[in-house]
Amino acid sequence: MSSEKQYEDQPPPYPDGSQPGPMQPQSLMPPGPVPAPQAAPAHQVNVMPGPVCVQSTVCYGEYSMAIQCPHCHNTVNTRITHQTGLLTWLVAGGIFLVGGFLGCCLIPFCVDFCLDVVHSCPNCNQQLGVYQRLH
Ligand SMILES: [Zn+2]
C-alpha cells in the first residue's frame, strides 16, 4: 500500500552518470566467507587430581613404618620424632584466645597429637619425611 507508493517516489539509487562520492575500486566485495558456525567449544574438563601422596611416593603416617631408606637403601623402620607444626600453633592460639592462662598455651607443644611427626632413618639419620597434621 503506502510502502509501494513511497518506493515509487524515491529517486533511483543510481542517477545516470554523475554519481557523487568516490568510486569504489573493486565494485562490491563478495559476501566473504561466512565463518562456519563453530561447534560448541569442547568444554575442557579440568582433570581433578585424585588423592595423591605428594612428596615422593611414600605416605608418611603418624607412626613408625617400614621403608626403604633412599639414602642408605636399607629397609628400616623409621624413627619418628615430633616437632611443632601448624596445628600446634593453632591449638596454642586457640587456648590463648579462650582465656587459657599462661602455661596452658604450652600444652599443645607437649601433646603428640598436636605435633608433626618427622620420620628419619635410624641407620643414616637422614630425615625421610614429615607427617603433617595440617597441610
Ligand atoms: Zn638411611
UniProtKB/TrEMBL annotation:
Membrane-crossing residue ranges in chain numbering: 86-109
Membrane topology term: Peripheral membrane protein
Start and end residues of each LITAF domain: 49-133
Ranges of biased composition (kind: Pro residues): 28-38
Gene Ontology terms: cellular component: late endosome membrane; lysosomal membrane
Residue span of region Disordered: 1-41
Keyword field contains Transmembrane: yes
Entry protein name: LITAF domain-containing protein
Organism: Patiria miniata (Bat star)
